[in-house]
Amino acid sequence: MLVVVAHPDDPEYGLSAAVKHWTSAGVEVSYLLLTHGEAGISTLVPEETGPLRAAEQRAACTAVGVGDLVILNHPDSMLVYGLDLRLDIAREIRRVKPDAVVTASFEVEAYGGFNQADHRVAGLAALDATRDAGNPWAHRGLLGSEQPWNVDQFLIFGADDPNVGLPVSRGCVDAAIESLRCHSAYLAALPGHPAPEDLIPAALRGPAELFPDPGVEFAVNFTMHSI
What is the value of pTM for the model shown? Predict the structure, then answer.
């Protein structure tokens, strides 16, 4: 699995519970972040924030069993959809060779409000780069000796129309809570942000309501497409 998101902390709002489920089952999961999130703390200059948030993301990866983390240097809060971004993502897909690419919702309206601009760009670029990665004529001459790679499935977390659900254990939920706690400096800069131990279980109980099995307390839902 290759998770493609815009910022540090983007995987930690429920998706990381699914990641822990996968890694516990022996699935190799890699993270590709398109920015360092350097514009995310208003009281710190980007030169300080970027390395700090990258370190927090590395700790969050450890919490859910992810060992392969790549962070690109596209500009936080000014992520631009274009061929350069698609190329960088396609290159990572060809390197990782995942069976599935996972991203977060890139709809204009998401999560109860308007989606952040970088999230919208990241998701659409991830989708198009997934197709680019399997096309030997896309980015011709730019990817060198890297061979085309066809991804089987494209999963969108947080979409309004999920078509597949993944029940997760309490242990996976606890790991997801810990992964969000790892972003302590970032969360401290967000007044009124719910505590991870309150936010994550509540977020994952809602998706579980789609399951008729009363034994399913927590779930992570996706919209899944074949590529």
Answer: 0.95
